[in-house]
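WARN no homologs supplied; continuing
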Amino acid sequence: MTLREPRYLPRWDRGAASQQGGRHEQQDRWGIFQPPDQDGVLAIVADGMGGHLDGALGAQIAIDVTRKFAQSPPALLRANPLAALVQLCQRIHEAINSQSETARSTAVMVWLDRDRAYWLNIGDSRLYHFRHGRRLMRTRDHSAVQLLMDLGEINESQMATHPAQNRLYRCLGGEDAPKPDTGHCAIQSGDLLALCSDGVWEYVTEPELWTTALANSPAVAARLLTEQAVRRGGAAADNATLVLLRANDGAGDPPHWLQRLSAGFVALFNRHRR
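OK structure emitted
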């Protein structure tokens, strides 16, 4: 008989924050849900599209439908998580269209089930996966600037400041059926998942995201990073929303010496960035 190594069962430390920035309305929404009688976690960030009326409504509907989905999850969520997320995406799209002709929203969501993460995104809200300070993955934006980067006409650092940054070709709501991207990845202890609206990734670098999350609890790190994003955005700063999920094997928060070291790295990075 062959004995299988037991699967890693992380405890997910979680935190989130959202800032209105310089906009007249907060159109970002987020949610972290744990279905009853399941160990999994379902998280989502939705960014209502400010160029459309009822942008905030579209994002709120995304959260409401996801909450209801998590409260009574279909068996498909365990049997085929990616298919379940696509089903959830379709439900959100239909709910938006049933309540408004103009509401639109982006969405990025992740289902955490034992040692695996299953994700879906549509629009330019992102999921990042970090391990040991290295980015393993980020979702692709459904935007004009992502296409320009794919063609080699701009680099990744230029995406946030490009004049076409806000031009999206996929979203939730509207006549076109949603065409999300999906994927999955294995999780190890210490891994960090970050879901965010474009108001975060436009102004916060990946090293800052990782080191701030390493040096603080997810809740504190999310607050610090969203505050930093709107400060850098100035008077016209976009809404900024960030959900952080850290796989913890039970060892607790990082030791104080590591927190101080990480904070020093961020300060040094910022000095060189100016």
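The chain has one domain: 11-273.
OK
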